[in-house]
Amino acid sequence: MHSLDFNGQALARREFFGRTATGIGTAALAQLLHRDGLQAATLPGVPGFPGFAPKAKRVIYLFMNGGPTHVDLFDWKPQIKALHGKPVPDSYVGGKRFSTMTGAAGGKLMLAPVEPFQQHGQSGAWVSSLMPHTAAIADELCFIKSMHTDAVNHAPAISFLLSGAQLPGRPALGAWLSYGLGSETENLPSFAVMTSVSKGTSCGQIFYDFYWGSGFLPSRYQGVKFRSGGEPVLYLSDPRGVNSAMKRGMLDDLARLNERKLQDFGDPEIATRIAQYEMSFRMQASVPELADFSSEPASVLESYGPGVKEAGTFAHNCLMARRLVERGARCVQLMHAGWDQHNSITTELYTQCRDTDRASAALVMDLKQRGLLDDTLVVWGGEFGRTPFIQGNLGDRPRWGRDHHPYAFTLWMAGAGVKPGLSYGASDDLGMNAVVDPVHVHDFQATLMHLMGIDHKRLTYRFQGRDFRLTDVHGEVVRGVLA
To answer: What is the number of alpha carbons within 13 Å of residue 361 lying toward its C-beta?
Structure first.
């Protein structure tokens, strides 16, 4: 595309309402500034999207930082138990790259699952006793047991799964969705992020801002992080001596100045500044109501578990996620760290499961009971799995661990557009390699975009002379999981 044509297209997509001085542009700006009693319009997406009827209107991504151990949770392999304490067969690991903590995998000893598995529901899904609440809703879930990725370390692997690239700087999934589909809410962020970590864990991961960044997209599309303590969002309260009317007048004056700059320079970041000032003003009223659980029935609070009223816990964040999507949020990304169990499979794995299992299942059922699961997609999973062989000394059970494993892992989805009660794909008999219907990270991303009504090959953004997309130049929709 010629650069002048592209600039015209970019103007139509992102700057039209901010730069047009007459007609509908004036009306839109008037809405933006709350003048004459008008409410702000929702942010439009890219023209032509969704390109077809979406199954899902919103997504809640329960991201388990650190790499949950698939062979201890969802991927039952009797052969691992049979080979416990014996060297991993060379044919399974030859030529493969593992983290530097493992180095060469040859000669490593196999480690059986730490807790027994059972089949559950009419689907007969195998789930460890570590996850009883997830097991109880197995018929609501679509397990993908043949996931695989390109990265072997945490930050590159998380970035790869959430942005399509191992290096930081690309837009996160939620930013792509907000950019392409726009926002359905004017009072809350379209893309919201919350983080948590189990108390006392020794294997937490760092939450880098680029996990929810907008990359080269205008910064208005980046995720808004809700804090785990104090006010959920900074500066919600007015400073002492400043009331709402004073702040409203100040923002109106700032908006007029920024609008002049926008007309002069056409910088989309100026439009972002106008929009974000207005969003912050509206959030002063909407966020306190969002975080107030007093109207929630006791049965709902109980279903999420005892931590639901404690800000910063995974249970609290799950209920916040439900409240966000029912108020119009497009993407809610919950990130819970602590799954990096190099030497704590017999201790901290139990803590992680206790802190996430009940709330994850409660979220799915809460959405279902409210009719929201019909058009909300829930995803649970991490950046990779963990090795079927041990990291550490087999004789020192309290220090058993497993290393990073990119060649096969499991995630599950529930809700809009996916087949419930399905286990799709499979790893080999040691949980080592994805061998039946392998699903690459880009395939998963393409499938998620498809469920949202987006052809992943068409939603692109030109940056530094090329068109970028979430799935880079790869990815096929996994038709087998679609309802």
So the answer is: 17
Q: Fill in the DSSP letter of residue 411.
A: E
What the block records as the tokens of 254 is 């700032």
DSSP 343-386: S-TTTHHHHHHHHHHHHHHHHHHHHHHTT-TTSEEEEEE-S-EE
How far is it, in rounded angstroms, from Cα 241 to Cα 311? 29
On whether the pTM is more than 0.90, the answer is: no
Nearby residues of 178 by Cβ (< 8 Å), 6 or more positions away? 43, 45, 190, 191, 221, 330, 331
Query: Between the CA atoms of 413, 220, 335 and 207, what dihedral angle is there, to the nearest 10 degrees?
Result: 150
Q: β-pairing, 385-386 with 404-405?
A: antiparallel
- Model pLDDT for residues 142-157, shown as the tens digit of each residue: 999 999 999 999 999 9
Domain range for 103? 51-232+306-481
Q: In one letter, which amino acid is 392?
A: G
* Distance of alpha carbon 162 from the chain centroid: 7
Distance CA 370, CA 372 (A): 5
Q: In this structure, what CATH number is given to the domain that contains residue 94?
A: 3.40.720.10
Q: Could you tell me the two tokens for 276?
A: 């974000």
Residue 45 lies in a domain: no
Decide: 196 and 310 in contact? Cβ < 8 Å: no
Query: Scanning the structure block, which residue is given the tokens 């730490």?
Result: 114
Q: How many domains does the chain have?
A: 1
- Which residue has tokens 């220090």? 399
CA distance 388 to 397: 15
What are the φ and ψ backbone dihedral angles of 480, each rounded to 5 degrees? -65, -15
Top mean-pLDDT range of 28-37, 163-172, 247-256: 163-172
What are the tokens at 86? 């014996």
271 DSSP 8-state letter: H
CB proximity list for 239: less than 8 A, separation 6 or greater: none
Residue 327 lies in a domain: yes
Q: Kindly give the interhelix angle for 154-163 and 441-451, rounded to the nearest 10 degrees.
A: 30
